[in-house]
Amino acid sequence: MAKPGIHAYIDIQLKDKNGKVLKKLRFKSKSWVKNMAILLSGALSNTSFTLIDQSGNNANVSNNTDVVSVFKTNAPAGEDRYGILVGSGTNPVSPNDYKLYNKISNSVLAYSDTNIGQFTGDENGFTFAISRTFTNNGTQAVTVSEVGLAILGASLWILIARDLLSSPITVQPGQVLQVVYAISLLP
Fold first, then answer.
1. Which of 38, 61, 109, 186 pairs as cysteine with 125 (C-beta 3.0–4.6 A)?
2. Residue ranges covered by each domain of the chain
3. From CA 124, how far away is CA 108, in angstroms rounded?
4. Which of 61, 95, 82 is nearest to 163 (CA)?
5. 109: closest CA among 46, 43, 47, 177?
């Protein structure tokens, strides 16, 4: 039985152009970064707080800010600054991470929109999923070794989670990579 808290699992599938699953990977995310803790603390205490944006700059959030806008992760197709992000960095994960170390842009892998799944729950816990696909429309293979989750709020792009894959996944031309953050809040 899982301990109480906020947990996330990352499910990754590599598919060919016809949708056939070529590879699956599932692992527990261990990498909520400091920005996530500050965001939760500030939002719940109704105080102003400072996050670090993906450019490495201080991002001051007033206690008058609409918290719903701070948590926006449902990025549209082509938007590679928030939602689920992928990269090729291999630097060890740190609680102080504020960006992917080598983000793969939408011009290299086509980012679909980020979808937020149906919220479900009962006395055993609450769950929802965040998903996005990345399509290699190019002519070169692209290797993915890191994934992250970033939010948009008041024109700030803030990373809240970063994880390394246990083994990199190479996305060949025509292939699609699907990444899902399955998030659970357990009592």
1. 186
2. 5-63+81-186
3. 41
4. 95
5. 177
On whether the CB atoms of residues 12 and 22 are closer than 8 A, the answer is no
Residues 174, 168, 7, 156, Cα dihedral to 10° = -70
Q: In 3-state terms, the chain is what percent helix, strand and coil (to 5)?
A: 10, 50, 40
Q: Is this structure's pTM higher than 0.85? A: yes
Q: How far apart are the first and last CA of the chain?
A: 11
Q: How far is CA 11 from the centre of its chain?
A: 12
pLDDT digits (tens, 9 = 90+) for 17-58: 999 999 999 999 988 999 999 888 887 888 888 899 999 999
Query: What residues does 183 pair with on adjacent strands?
Result: 8, 128
For the chain, how big is the Rg over CA atoms in Å?
A: 16
